[in-house]
Amino acid sequence: MPKVIGLRCRECGAEYELQATHVCEMCFGPLDAVYDQAVMRKLVKRERIEDGPKSMWRYRDLLPVEDSVNIVTLGEGFTPLVKADRLGAELGLRNLYLKNDSMNPTNSFKDRVVSVAISWARAQGFETIACASTGNLANAVAAYAARAGLECFVFIPVDLEPAKVASISVFDPNIVAVRGNYDDVNRLCSQLLESTPWAFCNINIRPFYAEGSKTLTFETAEQLGWRLPDEIIIPIASGCQFVRHRQAARELVEYGLVRSDRVPAFTGAQALGCAPVYNAFVSGEERVLPVKPDTIARSIAIGNPSDGIYVNRIARETGGVVEAVTEEEIVDSMRLLARTEGIFTETAGGVTIGVLAKLARAGRWRGDETVVAYVTGHGLKTADVLATANGHAKRVEIEPTMKSFRQKVNI
Amino acid sequence: MGRRRLKLIFGPSLVKEPVIYQLGRNFEIVTNIRRADVAKDHGWVLLEVSGEPEELDRGVAFLESKGVKVEPAEGDLVE
Q1: What is the tens place of the pLDDT at every residue in A48-58?
Q2: How far apart are the CA of B75 and the nearest CA of chain A, in angstroms?
Q3: Alpha-helical runs (H) found in A193-267
Q4: Chain A residue closest to B6 (CA)?
Q5: What ipTM is given for this predicted complex?
């Protein structure tokens, strides 16, 4: 019996057969994968998960891929959940955990969603995988397409940083550098959908791609001993993964995988240089007004987030908040995390840790709550921001002599 | 014929202006509103437009020249 039986519009409830499409033809709302609840209740068991591989595919029963033969994997997921005692001590949190998703094969959270997207696309017979990206997604898509032996097209703005282009091109995809800005790439890809038989990971197969996000929260619960935390801090770009983490928590409760039916508070993190969701949250508005991004946290710089409205609904409904931090706070937080826990995160991780620190210092928690922050990408992806930020205070330069060492180094 | 799903975002100076009417009248474009949320000082409309691709490009350029922000209906897709 198939698990996934179709697609449903999140806005108007219109239902569609299973296919590569992401927008409701009636109201243009987003489409979500629909699971057969009777099948799922029989299938989903803790024992089956615990017997599965040490990757996110141990949750394959909760993902929209029917046949394991089609799974395209590089061993993504089941990343460390680190108890952050030193960072926690600085912030007054005794039960602080970091889900370190920079440990994924291409060093970002995107490996989860892309593994599901390409597995689904291969099962449906697609021969070409594509994406519109500014970095992390393109990196993952190019790697997984190479793994699967599928043709790959990556659309990037022409001025994307050379280091990012290099880390994508090593996998030998077709790179289409569009002479224009992000908006132009966005529009072009939207139009291409009509005329190409391609699976665009973040566009027409988005309902399946997005499902991969859930595994981050499934793992967090399992690694906490099948228990959900009190609060989760999540970076907000389009808001797509935020919505799926709420869904993941619901599924963990519904299928009896966790002991309690209490759902965590979901809190979102944005950079003030691109904070449309935060702006709407603090003003109490339902609608999210687009902004022009201007931040070093480029991997989450989405000015017109597709799921922004749902992020705010979930944050309010679960007792979470949406908070934002300055560029300086982002870099300081990257350093804080590295200094206290030995984890080097990219700017998006700096946003998450920055919001965690800001809320902790403002007295949001008593100190004994279980708080988890999702660290979604590796610091080497954005190491350039540290080169231009405040220098390293502990650096000294010496002559190659004992005398010079003793003069300059205080031990 | 091409078809596009657009999100038109209006600021305070445009809420009263009949730009969708003008789009249909000035260009060979068929318009079809799917959803909208218009308040006193701003609003958005999800609009399906059909026509020849070049005509659609001209129509979008017209909207932008009026100060309307035109986005794909589903929001930013670049990640």
Answers
A1: 999 999 999 99
A2: 5
A3: 206-209, 214-223, 240-254
A4: A28
A5: 0.88
E strands present in A195-326? 199-200, 231-235, 265-271, 322-325
Residue A43, burial from CB neighbour count under 10 angstroms (0-12, 13-18, 19+): middle
Q: Do A131 and B5 touch (CB under 8 A)?
A: no
Token duo for residue A274: 């691109």
Which of B60, B64, B77 is best to mutate for the A interface (most A CBs within 10 A)? Answer: B77
In total, how many domains does chain A have?
2
A91-143 pLDDT, tens digit each: 999 999 999 999 999 999 999 999 999 999 999 999 999 999 988 999 999 99
CATH number for the region B2-72 comes to 3.30.70.260
Q: Is the dihedral of CA A68, A193, A234, A83 positive or negative?
A: positive
Interface of B with A (CB under 8 A): 2-5, 7, 9, 34-35, 37, 42, 44, 46, 48, 53, 69, 71-79
**Is residue A305 included in any domain, yes or no?**
yes
Main-chain dihedrals φ then ψ at residue A233, nearest 5 degrees: -105, 125
A249 lies in the same domain as A307 = yes
Residue A5's closest CA among A37, A34, A44, A42? A34
Q: Chain A: give the shortest CA distance to residue B6, in Å.
A: 9
- Residue recorded with tokens 């108007």: A12
pLDDT at B17: 82
Chain A residues whose CB is inside 8 A of the B46 CB are 27-28
Residues A101, A4, single domain; the answer is no
**Cβ pair B72:A30 closer than 8 A:** no
